[in-house]
């Protein structure tokens, strides 16, 4: 579509449909992939194309800017050009009826926070499953130890089985460790984006917890 014809796109819905079709052609991606990259469900993206909303959320507009260089001013208000020469430029966009600044950096921070929250859920799930399996393995070890006295001719095979179960127990927390490592990496990215010394912040948080615990002990006395 020529620049002249772009002026005919008088509504947000028309401009949004144009942007989606342009991205599909230029980047050879389907609609589902676009939805994933701008953190929308395919159903939500389809609703926007159908005109069920007068505008998109600020995070969606910021994602379109960060991922594809879309100018949110043009998309929402029809001002300027459809795409930015520098996608990192600050732009004022509409979110929940208000004009407010949104930066790609803020979008990245939100993604990191969501990933940290997801990691917390994963750690809780893995740790819970590990505790259940460890308990079952410990019961199995006790049964095997009892069998050693009952079946002396099988001591070697029983000892080998006990060692195998103990090894399995040691591996149970491996998924938790990998999630912890990823969570810590995300925290470091988060602190770098916000200019925070995460090690100092964690140290101060531990001091506060220690002081609170000491204060609680004193109050109890």
In short:
With 221 residues, the protein is mostly helical. 73% of the residues lie in helices and 5% in strands.
Keywords:
73% helix, 434 Repressor (Amino-terminal Domain), 221 residues, 2 domains, mainly alpha, elongated, two-stranded antiparallel sheet
What does this structure look like?
The structure is a single chain. By secondary structure, the chain is mainly alpha-helical. It folds into two domains: 100 residues, lambda repressor-like DNA-binding domains (434 Repressor (Amino-terminal Domain), Orthogonal Bundle); 109 residues, no CATH class. The chain is 73% helix and 5% strand. A two-stranded antiparallel sheet has the order 1-2. The chain is elongated, with a radius of gyration of 28 Å.
How are the elements arranged and paired?
Blueprint: H1 3-6, H2 12-27, H3 31-37, H4 42-50, H5 58-68, H6 72-77, E1 91-95, E2 98-102, H7 104-150, H8 155-171, H9 174-194, H10 198-220
Antiparallel strand pairs: 1-2
Helix pairs in contact: 7-8, 7-9
User: Between the first and last Cα atoms, what is the distance in angstroms?
Assistant: 78 Å
Structural class: mainly alpha
Count of DSSP H/I helices = 10
Task: Kindly report the spatial arrangement of strands forming the biggest sheet.
Answer: 1-2
Shape: elongated
The count of DSSP E runs of length 2 or more, i.e. the number of strands, is: 2
Q: What is the beta-strand fraction? A: under 5%
